[in-house]
Amino acid sequence: MGTPRAAYIPPLQFFAFLATLTVHPHFTTRTYDVEKQTAADDALRYLQQVAKLVGPRNSGLVRAFRFVEAKKPTASRNKRAVTRNTTDTAEEEQEYDADSIRSRYATEESLWSKADDFWSVVGWAFNCSVVHPHRWRRWKVWLELVLDVLAADLESHAEDDTIAASLFARYLASVGERGRNTKRRLMRAILADGTQSSLAEFHEVWRDETRGPRTHKTQDANRQHKRQKLDLDNGDFGDYGDESSAEDSPAASNPRSRSSTAKPSRRDSGNDENSDDENLFDIFTEFLRPLPLAIFSHFVCPARPYLDPDALSSMLQMLFRPLLVGSGAPVYDENIVTQEVFEECFAPFAAGGGGGVDNAKVSVMVESLLRLLWRNGGVVGRRSLREAVEKGVKVRREKVAWDGRRRTGFKALEEEEAGMVMEASAQRMMSVLDLLT
Asked: 198-201: long-range contacts at Cβ-Cβ below 8 A with a sequence spacing of 24 or more?
């Protein structure tokens, strides 16, 4: 890999400042200024290269991306760039001093000051993916950057057996006491879908963030009002730190304050905090089962697995239970799913409640289990396997055909989509069986 070389990197506050520029609306979706848009893109590329070449821990990115430290700046000790060897795993303490950068985008307009925590940003970003696509395009690249940092940092701490000290562990700790309600909030953030309740809980980070660019006339007036000289050596970013207007004034209401007034749902109002060993897949079942079929399919039968085999198997079993109630399927409570268990307890059954959507979900989960067994060498081609899979395909088709309920409008379209998903799933399972034989 070559000889390790020293890397010159700035203090932490500059990383946090640049991370804000990559997504702040004044540098992205609320300006026509090409110079500012270029600054946001350059900031993103710089952070990506630092994460790739120096690493999140060696560079200090993991400390710069901590919401708590960013909100509590302290006195400056060092404004000069520091030199670190890229192979040195010792984390040197650096003072976080946002005030050393003369820009409100490093202080009161900083992402790390505006957002409640990481999960509030995740929820808002995914809300944008549905209702504000112009903002989602920017939040998407920010999330990708942070997820790369989280993954690399987590892997590094796993090697040292210090996962509790990772940035991801810190993000989890930021939501408060661990328990069922906490896990529900994380799931609501991950599954934020732009609905009214989701937008109420995960709202915009910056005031009027979703508005379009200002007119050229307004921008020119702002520039003429006050243009400062850039002095990068002394941390003076000129008019990049003074784009004030009545609607964007720091004195304007901070959206963070609204989060404290959000009312919890009825199911979250009770104090049901449990110990750490409570079953996480109960939460998965609660949130994943009602999802629309297309999104549900991505979670339970992904093109690229995102869970290890044991975790995926456990999650599928939890999701099967409510759907197979009343179907005659035997209850299976063990952790390991073998081919025999697959043939006897899952493959040959339809959803207990009927309806195209539930049966399509059962079909997709049966397919996912079959593919899981195949990938891990736990299945062999034999007559009993084909008979179980073909029986399941047949009974699910019959269940939908003889449902007896007439549907119109959206429900009819939903059932039509479910039928197509179920048939496509059946064809894929037949292809797997053909390969096995």
From this structure: 198/123, 198/127, 199/127, 199/131, 200/262, 201/123, 201/259, 201/262
Q: Computed from CA positions of residues 285, 286, 287, 289, in that sequence, does the dihedral angle turn out positive or negative?
A: positive
Do residues 356 and 288 lie in contact, with contact meaning Cβ atoms separated by under 8 Å?
Answer: no
For residues 188 and 198, is the Cβ–Cβ distance under 8 A? yes
Tokens of 175: 């939501």
DSSP codes of every residue in 249-266: -TTSPPGGGGGGGPPPPG
Is there a contact between 317 and 337 (Cβ–Cβ < 8 Å)? yes
Region of 409 please: left (phi>0), alpha (psi -120 to 50) or beta. left
Compute the residue count for the chain.
437
DSSP 147-173: HHHHHHHHHHHHHHT-GGGSHHHHHHH
| Phi and psi, residue 78, nearest 5° | -150, 115
Euclidean distance between CA atoms 126 and 146, whole angstroms: 15
pLDDT digits (tens, 9 = 90+) for 293-348: 999 999 999 888 888 888 899 899 999 999 999 999 998 877 789 999 999 999 99
Distance separating alpha carbons of residues 9 and 412, to the nearest angstrom:
59
Helix (H, G, I), strand (E, B) or coil at 334: coil
Contact 7, 82 (CB under 8 A): no
**pLDDT digits over 248-305, tens only?**
433 333 444 333 333 333 334 344 444 343 867 788 889 999 999 999 999 999 888 8
- Report how far residue 228's alpha carbon sits from residue 241's, in angstroms, rounded to the nearest whole number: 9
The helix/strand/coil state of 180 is: helix
